[in-house]
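User: Um, what's this?
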Amino acid sequence: MKKQPIYSIYREKKQEFSEKIDKLFKGAYSDKMNRTGDKLVTWTATGEPNWSYIPSAGKSSKTKEQFVSEIKNLAQKAAKTENKAESDAISRQVLTLRAEYLSDVAPNRKLLYQQD
């Protein structure tokens, strides 16, 4: 049996996470996966990567059930909020959760970045 390339597994996990988010948030976050408000969050003001939102190896040890529970919790919060600041905070939490979810198949980007 041929082994599946890691980039293919990563792409599948990213798609799976996006589908869960879209299903629970009814598409509200599909356009905001790298943005919160109108600000790109994957880079800091100093030009350094914001590792909170970038998938990198070894970031999480959560189980699939824990991820599903956290996604449902965020979806419930998002459904109830009418405050833009709280909505932006939820968006950042979604991005952090996404980075954690993808970390088990992601390369160690932080180490690769530091080696450059």
Observations:
- Residues 27-38 have pLDDT under 50 and may be disordered.
- The helical segments are 6-25, 64-80, 84-102, 109-115.
- The beta strands are 35-36, 39-40.
